[in-house]
Amino acid sequence: MRKDPTGRALQLLSLLQTHRLWRSAELAERLEITERTVRRDVDRLRDLGYRVDATPGKHGGYRLATGAHLPPLVLDDGEAVALAVGLRYAAEAAIVGMEETSLRALTKIEQLLPHRLRRRVSTLHSNVASIRREADDDIIDPEALSVLAAACRDREEVRFDYRRHDGDNSRRLVEPHQLVTAGRRWYLVAWDQQRRDWRTFRLDRLREPQPAGGHFTSRQIPGGDAASFLAGSLGSIPRLYEAEIAVNAAFAELESALRWVDHTPIEMEADACRVQIRSEDLGRLAMTVARIALTAPVAVIEPAELADTVRRLAAHLTEP
Amino acid sequence: MRKDPTGRALQLLSLLQTHRLWRSAELAERLEITERTVRRDVDRLRDLGYRVDATPGKHGGYRLATGAHLPPLVLDDGEAVALAVGLRYAAEAAIVGMEETSLRALTKIEQLLPHRLRRRVSTLHSNVASIRREADDDIIDPEALSVLAAACRDREEVRFDYRRHDGDNSRRLVEPHQLVTAGRRWYLVAWDQQRRDWRTFRLDRLREPQPAGGHFTSRQIPGGDAASFLAGSLGSIPRLYEAEIAVNAAFAELESALRWVDHTPIEMEADACRVQIRSEDLGRLAMTVARIALTAPVAVIEPAELADTVRRLAAHLTEP
DNA sequence: CGCATTGCGGACAAGATCGGTCCTCGGTAG
DNA sequence: CTACCGAGGACCGATCTTGTCCGCAATGCG
Questions:
Q1: For A212-234, what is each residue's pLDDT tens digit?
Q2: Å separating the CA of residue A58 from the C1' of nucleotide D22
């Protein structure tokens, strides 16, 4: 029946520590207790001096008031795994000097862990190998990360050299709003003062960012938040190719084929649809079309260039 | 007499947090309990993962190990960045519940850092967003990771259910040698006892690994180490389809198209070649053929199945 | 305004846990 | 060797915890 109220209190604190809004039911599930007991546990925390705000109503829930100073919390098993896995991933994160550094950090942190977890972490650490990727052209500087993150926080303008994909170099002055990771790449979403527009910058193409002194007031990022803005603009930055295709199948059936390309459905009918796909690489678009052709008839509406490429591809397949 | 074990535990924690030496009698007085109960409470904290050192004898007493003489956590700037970045990456590691978990771990560790670094880490933490991936079909269980890592370390056989890509389920008994990450995927390189051969298993297709009790002596992994063995076998594991194709171009020109498939050149002439390609997935082979067709005429020699698929693909491209 | 959602907290009973007492070990320092 | 101090087993009654069931209050939506 009862497990361990004390441990649960710590666990509850650790959950609330993320400062997100937790609904009673969520907490109950996590802690494997009833909602009633959640309320009791929260009460207990409050008695102990922690400010736990609760709001009733539709969007209600619990939230730890900021500034509460917490007891030292111990990592649980999952967190220990996250640590080991995370720092191992970091070693491959395309950041200069990261491999050695993150392993060093891991070793240091291991020292602080209770025995059981230390063993777990070090086991995980030493029994995992990884296949190196070969692309070494997109390495970024940890210092740059820090500078940009700090500038985002302080709403301070930054200046840096940026090399576009076509090799063009230019000096930029921007208002940095957010760093975003997408797979192994890092991007900065910022308002470009010279262009008077939003831009995303790949961190590996950016050199020596420096605080420029000026401060700015935060703007509304189009698309709601930086991540979706980036997602939307990823395919269109070089905006070399935007294609429209017609497929004799329901849009839903294309999910797997379109998973890795930037796409927008234009028309959706029961057994046919039109989709816009975008990429900086014509070959990639052609492969996407071919991928769709595996399962359904497809035609390229525009651009003519892509239609040509696809036609050539088909010809190569039929008349060797 | 107030009886509130939970509150007392937290109180005790905060007393011990001062890192001075507390004698049992002192604690008993502060907490208004017996010394016997102090011992019990200390035990409880230890069970929860806190390292409480106790020394007997004349100058004995209790003290919290973490940070007593060992300074809180001395990381340099780079290590701090690695920490933040790594745990952020872990969030994308395709491990169930990892996002929450790794961010929680990060917040906890932040508490241990000296001010300057804490600021740095938390800045990085809170100014980075990430684009969620959508593929949720390859999620693995952190518990499985730990079990397998431990089995590798202890050279202990493990048993698990494995689902092949074709949906076939089977129970395996293997000698686990190494975990390997490749991109977002995790693999286990192991000697399969029933098959009497090396196999690689995708962790997301493996269910409930359990130590099987038996121990084994480590074998030499073909290819030298697990990572290169995996790299070599990625394309050929199930080897369901072996196809032979003829291309009207020099073999060298196919390099990029063949990069990610298991292939063997059969005949190489100046402007034509025949290549064997292997994959578990017919669609994948078809896509490889299409990829080649981007640049050169290509024909499928066998199997007929692949020829059919490619013919259908071409038809879909030409007669929508 | 009514309705759904979400948090709040009282009452109660079963039973697990807790804590004081008593006692024996075992390691440390002088 | 001896005093001091932490470790921990056993026992037992007092206490605390928890699930269940309940009606109440605040919020937001249509």
A1: 988 999 888 876 677 777 766 66
A2: 22
